[in-house]
Amino acid sequence: MFIQKEILSTLKGDIIGGISVAFVALPLALSFGVLSGAGAAAGVYGAICTGILASMFGGTKAQISGPTGAMTVVLVSMADKYGLEGLVASMILAGIFEIIMGLLKLGKYIRLIPKPVMVGFTNGIGMLIFINQFKYFNMSPILCTLSIILMLILPMINKKLPYAIITVIVGTVVSKIWLPMPEAYVVGQIPLALPSLQIPNFFAMNIMDLCQAGLTLALLGAIESLLSALVVDEMTSTKHDSDREILGQGIANTVAACFGFLIGTGAIARSVVNVNAGGRGRMSGIIHALVLILLIAVFGDLAAGIPLAVLGGVLMGTALRMIEYGESYRLARASKEAFVVIAITTVLTVVVDLTFAVAIGTMVSALAMLFSVANGYLEEYPVPCSANQKYIKSFSIQGQMFFLVSESIISSLEVKCKGADIVVLNMSHAQVVDITGIITLGKIKDSLALQGVRTIFTGLSEAAYKKMLALGIVDGSEEAINCGDKLEAVAYAQALAHNDEWGAHWIIYEQLQMNDEHRIAEITEEGLLFNENTIG
Predict the structure, then answer these.
(1) Separation between Cα atoms, residue 83 and residue 357, nearest integer Å
(2) What is the mean pLDDT of residues 158-184?
(3) SS in 3 state form for 19-64?
(4) Are 228 and 266 in contact (CB under 8 A)?
(5) CA-CA-CA-CA torsion sign (517, 522, 523, 527)
């Protein structure tokens, strides 16, 4: 009863959204099918199968699923490497892996990939899609160029236009009238017969290679689907279920792959079209798939005559629109580290492969984050230095010195202290609570010593100083400076920078005298308080 009420409450918007997105999905499904090497029919039926099952079992109600550019690019490389039977096997395994990830509730971890990495791999995928279309561009440069221009201009005129289907129609009409294509250069007949199971012989293949390929596809599908789900959440003010979404995608992809169809993911562009047209419920994805069946049944003969050069142009235009120019510029302008991560991930996606690119990009992003955290722990204070003295730098270390941050502070100091002769490290704001923090201070001193830099610690607590003394990090000759304040330490460093050993010793002597006076005052005050309490 509740399900029926939920369906009826969004049915009107779902019908409009489903019909609208079907006209966007059809040319893309045809294009991705052709690009993959499995054929246009595999792309269309993949969109139908995943569209229905992912909507039924997934965790994002208004999301539209189907073959996407990122997934198809990886499928192309796998088809080249393993052949069509190996491709089907890896797609089946991808679906099974997604089901396992959903059941193990790994969705929240998959979403932790940094934004610059996502932008970089999206840019790389866009470039790969564009590069892979040149074989279709060569079939008819005029038709392909016309399709690219239409794909770029039509959205500028009106974003609500089904620009992909318009491009296909215009390109096909131009071909029929002025530029007829030979039979080998068009889509060809799309069969309407019921599909048959295509279970490959796994035992005849290298199962480890197939598992690796399947895991790559599964991770990519999960990442893309959850990214799309976040976009839908933002547009509809809803909250998706990450684990159910991956599980639903896994079920849809396993079934699709068993029939030799292309597997899919949640598709951002199609989901946005659906939501903008009013789609809010699961029926929108199912209706979109049913409309695709109707379009193929009614216009199948016309679709068979679509030139491959036109579909290549559609994908080239899609690729150019897919590259995140604005986001790349915005992130790169905000952070040099983000620019490096985007550049590395983009290049590795194009040159090596997507999995390697995401892994390296995430690692570089994590290292950049740790370096940034270390910089946040370091506060530099300028020390005036004349031309005829040694160069001094002064830093305050703040916060808890746990392992990863400690190592990052060492790396950061190695960079920041280049050219310095003496470094003053103020520890009065640092929380050196255990032996790990003390050992780190020793590593800092040793690391800087290798660069010929003398390290002067100051602001140490009595407990920290005693531990450093026991470990031989300090020798006791600078106790007054080590346990004193930053100003005295800088003055001491200035004396050493001018090779004024007598002046340096005098500063230590004055600091010791001052410390003794403080201790006498404290003892006297405690004695007076004791006497007053006794008398009272």
Answers:
(1) 24
(2) 90
(3) HHHHHHHHHHHHHHHHHHCCCHHHHHHHHHHHHHHHHHHCCCCCCC
(4) yes
(5) positive
Inform me whether the pLDDT recorded for 535 exceeds 60: no
The residue count of the chain comes to: 536
For tokens 């500063």, what's the residue?
Answer: 507
The DSSP H or E segment spanning 458 is strand 454-458
pLDDT at residue 138, as a whole number: 94
Q: What value does the mean pLDDT of the chain take?
A: 86
- Chain center to CA of 359: 9
Lowest mean pLDDT among 5-14, 309-318, 429-438, 515-524: 515-524
Residues 72/191, Cβ–Cβ less than 8 Å: no
pTM over 0.90: no
Cβ count near 419 (within 10 Å): 9
The amino acid sitting at 478 is E
Question: Where are any strands of DSSP class E within 161-204?
Answer: none
Q: How many CA atoms within 13 Å lie on the side-chain side of 414?
A: 13
Nearest to 167 by CA among 321, 307, 65: 307
Higher pLDDT, 369 or 156: 156
| pLDDT-derived band at 9, boundaries 50, 70, 90 | confident
Average pLDDT over residues 99-106: 94
- DSSP state, residue 401: -
CA distance 477 to 501: 13
- Reference 398, options 370, 362, 432, 447; nearest CA is 432
The pair phi, psi for residue 512, each rounded to 5°, is -65, -40
What residue type is assigned to position 245 of the chain? E
What residues pair up with 425 in beta bridges, in sequence order? 395, 457
Say if residue 329's pLDDT is above 70. yes
Q: Report how far apart, in Å, the C-alpha atoms of 42 and of each of 98, 262, 263 are.
A: 21, 6, 9
CA-atom Rg of the chain in angstroms? 33
Q: Are the C-beta atoms of 50 and 253 separated by less than 8 Å?
A: yes
pLDDT band at 401 (very low <50, low <70, confident <90, very high): low
Calculate ∠ Cα 26-30-31, nearest 5°. Answer: 115
Q: Confidence band (pLDDT; 50, 70, 90) for 411?
A: confident
Q: Are 371 and 414 in contact (CB under 8 A)?
A: no
User: What type of residue sits at position 61?
Assistant: K
What Å distances lie between residue 161 and 20, 35, 152, 462, CA to CA? 10, 24, 12, 73
**Sign of the Cα pseudo-torsion (425, 428, 432, 438, in order):** positive
